[in-house]
From TrEMBL:
Record protein name field: Oxidoreductase
Classification via InterPro entries: NAD(P)-bd_dom_sf, SDR_fam
UniProt keywords, alphabetically: Oxidoreductase
Domain of life: Bacteria
Family, as annotated: Belongs to the short-chain dehydrogenases/reductases (SDR) family.
Gene3D superfamilies on file: NAD(P)-binding Rossmann-like Domain
A Gene Ontology cellular-component term: membrane
A matching Pfam family: adh_short
GO molecular function: oxidoreductase activity
């Protein structure tokens, strides 16, 4: 089993989806820890603003990119390695959250979510592994969510991608360990972002992106496979998902109040809820 844990003097950190939320906060934290960080997203202006706000021993380099385009991610990795240095730590964070209501499902909501959260992660993972394998070491952390532990209201698309990321990371770890690449999965609870602001149910143990970034930075240094926080909440969710389904659905309905909510379709006299992607 690999014991590699990336340090600033060994090379660069690369963070996708760094224009907002957890990715943005983590970039600032890693700069303070001494890393030179390459940040990638589609919003150039936000990335430049982030670059100017960074303070610390490290610095931030901006490289625009679209994780849904595999050729673009190949280009980004090649540009980083050729122009700036070796990537020893990759945090694959880019993602969107589009609420899905079972009574008014739209195909495009699933396709967009899968394209960014799942396929986008794979598009970054493949070149990152290839470059790290050639050097014989590296560290990759994939940002999933506790939504991947079990189904939650409005999470049919989002939760499906996060469950897939957890399973993918578990499966790949066996071989990447032998290649000298440490693979980790990050499963945050509720973090205060533009995405969670759209949740239509109570969010216990809600934390700020800065606290989330601190927890992730600590987990990257410790090297354990799963980085999850706040543990009192996330471990409780793990236990809930061990319950028989009859108890699971009853408990989630009670905790979210979802069963008492009316349907959202116009045929039931309800105004449609706000739709659209939210970066996380």
């Amino acid at each position: 089993m690999t014991d590699f844990v990336a340090r600033p003097e060994q090379g660069l950190a690369w963070i996708t989806g760094a224009s907002s939320g957890i990715g943005r906060a983590l970039a600032l934290r890693l700069v303070q820890d001494g890393f030179n960080v390459v940040v990638t997203a589609r919003d150039h202006e936000r990335l430049v603003k982030l670059q100017h706000e960074a303070t610390g021993p490290g610095k931030i380099t901006v490289l625009d990119g679209d994780v849904t385009d595999p050729r673009d991610m190949e280009r980004v990795l090649a540009a980083i390695e050729y122009e700036h240095g070796s990537v020893v730590l990759a945090v694959l964070n880019a993602g969107v959250y589009i609420p899905v209501h079972g009574e008014e499902m739209q195909r495009e909501d699933f396709e967009k979510t899968f394209a960014v959260n799942l396929h986008g992660t794979v598009n970054c993972l493949l070149p990152a592994v290839r470059h790290m394998k050639a050097r014989g070491h590296g560290q990759i952390a994939i940002v999933s969510s506790v939504a991947g532990y079990g189904g939650l209201p409005t999470g049919a698309a989002y939760g499906a991608t996060k469950a897939a990321l957890i399973n993918m990371a578990e499966s790949l770890k066996f071989d990447l360990d032998k290649a000298g690449i440490r693979l980790q999965i990050i499963n945050p609870g509720f973090v205060e972002t533009a995405a969670t602001a759209k949740n239509e149910f109570p969010m216990p143990a809600l934390i700020s992106p800065q606290i989330a970034a601190d927890r992730i930075a600590e987990g990257l240094k410790s090297g354990g496979f799963e980085i999850t926080f706040p543990r009192r909440f996330t471990y409780a969710l793990k236990l809930i998902n061990l319950l028989p389904y009859s108890l699971y659905f009853r408990l989630i309905n009670r905790a979210t109040g979802w069963k008492k909510r009316p349907l959202t379709t116009a045929s039931h006299g309800m105004k449609g809820l706000k739709r659209g992607p939210q970066a996380v």
